[in-house]
């Protein structure tokens, strides 16, 4: 049965702060047509509840211990295709938004959103729409345009690299460390190290400095 056929929107709330999570659950419970069917204190629990309960929406905090919100979003989207993810976080930066969107989230709200804004966003993403709250919309559009330009330049100069490898090479060329890239892209340090090694091998760079020079000559590194 589709979400639009249901009278009640079923929601799982995932946030590692018990007081905020309980308060948000109470607020959502007071809304007509919304039922909180589960609460999760970390990303692993959010994925487990999504699989067990098949909610319409998981309201996902980004900053959680263990499995973070971005990775948890990726898992929910992969395992529960009928469930949508709406990210709710203190962070209002475009990097966080883009990471969540790349993971499959349908929308993003800051924790300062009003009850009405959260309710509207839940229904919108459940219906297949996309939601951007706060001041992030213009930032996201700007980053998307920048990413598209970078992708075009990278694809022309390094056609054998994957999209992820081009993204990492662009950040390497911008002078970011592996740790900074991992934080920016919500990846593990090990994953970034592996990607960087693959990139160096594919483009024939003997070291990181050579890769940076080659990338900058191709117009990368503005990120």
UniProtKB/TrEMBL annotation:
Keywords recorded for this protein, A-Z: DNA-binding, Phosphoprotein
One Pfam family cited in the UniProt record for this chain: GerE
Residue positions, PTM 4-aspartylphosphate: 61
Entry keyword DNA-binding: yes
Span of domain Response regulatory: 10-126
Domain (HTH luxR-type) ranges: 154-219
Gene3D superfamilies: 3.40.50.2300
InterPro entries: CheY-like_superfamily, NreC/VraR/RcsB-like_REC, Sig_transdc_resp-reg_C-effctor, Sig_transdc_resp-reg_receiver, Tscrpt_reg_LuxR_C, WalR-like
SMART domains named among the record's database cross-references: HTH_LUXR (SM00421), REC (SM00448)
Domain of life: Bacteria
Protein's name in the database: Response regulator transcription factor
Organism: Fodinibacter luteus
